[in-house]
Amino acid sequence: MNRGVSIIEARISEGAHGWRLDRALAEAVPILSRERLKVLISSGAVTGPDGLARDPARKAAAGSLFSVAVPEPEPAHNEAQDIALNVVFEDEHLIVIDKQAGLVVHPAAGNLDGTLVNALLHHCAGQLSGIGGVARPGIVHRIDKDTSGLMVAAKTDRAHEGLARQFKVHSIDRRYKAIVAGRPSTSGGTVHANLARSSVNRKKMAVVPSGQGKHATTHWRHLHQLREAALVECRLETGRTHQVRVHMTSIGHPLLGDPVYGSTRPAHRGVLATLGFQRQALHAAHLGFIHPVKSHALAFESEMPADMQELFNKLIV
Question: Using CB atoms within 10 A as the burial measure, which of 16, 94, 114, 226 is most buried?
Fold first, then answer.
């Protein structure tokens, strides 16, 4: 091993004979994505039986041995911070956490530290193989600051690429529990409504006509009747910003406690004040996906956190 560079030996399998070199090496080296290997090959970091292999499209021969020189990932610009995390699952490729309400996912203006990314940099220190050559967790989806529940993040390029692909084709199974105002007149339904930034308030999302914004679909079902409210489950077919909050508001059932899209009804005002409940009553309760490297199905469940459970209990009819 040279200083700052790891040498990975990779032998082309029988099944990969005749494949493009980048594809064959991605199978042989699961921690590296095909896109990352394309860059390494083109930059002269891959050596084969005939010397440097600079063409990602060249055909690979079964049994051929290649050496891949992988630079140590550059340190992330964000600071690693020791912030408590509830880790539900973790292996060498990815991590699933149950995010607490109040924790911002990604550093941005106004929240430069104290975020989930800062916490993951500390928790995964030495385990991140470098997303695009940088030692950082691969955030493929986000949960609002004041929403709690399950999230997955990648620790390797290969996992990041695979998870991103599943989110793109909407194959991730994401179900939220929400306490909404009003009692639905049906057992459930589907909201098809495009979303875009509000023309009145750029911090808000809004339903816009077909052909504008981004397509968004939420499937919901009524779980439990409450006092002028209901517990519902929302299954996301797409994952747009504030999707559940805007879609449920659009059908007359805003989330209790939502400071942006909801207006508190008299029947709930006293309960919310007594409990000090000042966030949208929304929890990411189920997360299911195919492991992006090992290819087996994973599914996780999370109970409603104490504050939301207490609100539910106070509203039981």
Answer: 94
Measure the CA–CA gap between 242 and 255, rounded to whole angstroms.
11
For the stretch 241-251, pLDDT in tens is 999 999 999 99
Name the residue among 260, 315, 283, 302 with its Cα closest to residue 87: 302
Q: How far is CA 266 from CA 44, 91, 253, in A?
A: 68, 48, 15
Nearest-CA neighbor of 217 among 241, 243, 199, 253?
243
CA distance 42 to 117: 31
Q: Please enumerate in sequence order all residues whose Cβ is within 8 A of that of 40, keeping only pairs 6 or more positions apart, or say none.
A: 32, 46, 68, 69, 70
pTM above 0.85, yes or no: no
**Residue 264 — left, alpha, or beta (φ > 0 → left; ψ -120 to 50 → alpha)?**
beta
Residue of 7, 35, 2, 25 lying closest to 164 (CA atoms): 35
Tokens of 70: 């992988």
Contact 135, 74 (CB under 8 A): yes
> Is 144 marked active-site?
yes
149-196: per-residue pLDDT in tens? 999 999 988 898 899 889 989 999 999 999 999 999 999 999 999 999
Residues in Cβ contact with 111 at an 8 Å cutoff, skipping those fewer than 6 apart: 104, 145
99 sits in which H/E element: strand 94-99
d(CA 246, CA 249): 5
Residues 98, 144, 146, 307: which is the catalytic one? Answer: 144
CA dihedral 197, 199, 200, 202 (to 10 degrees): 40
User: For the sheet containing 65-71, what is the strand order?
Assistant: 5-11, 65-71, 46-48, 51-52
What CA–CA distances, in Å, run from 129 to 33, 65, 125, 160, 167? 11, 22, 10, 11, 22
Task: List the end-to-end C-alpha distance of the chain, in Å, as a whole number.
Answer: 67
Taking the C-alpha atoms of residue 64 and residue 11, their distance in angstroms, rounded to an integer, is: 6
> Which residue matches tokens 């339903």?
207
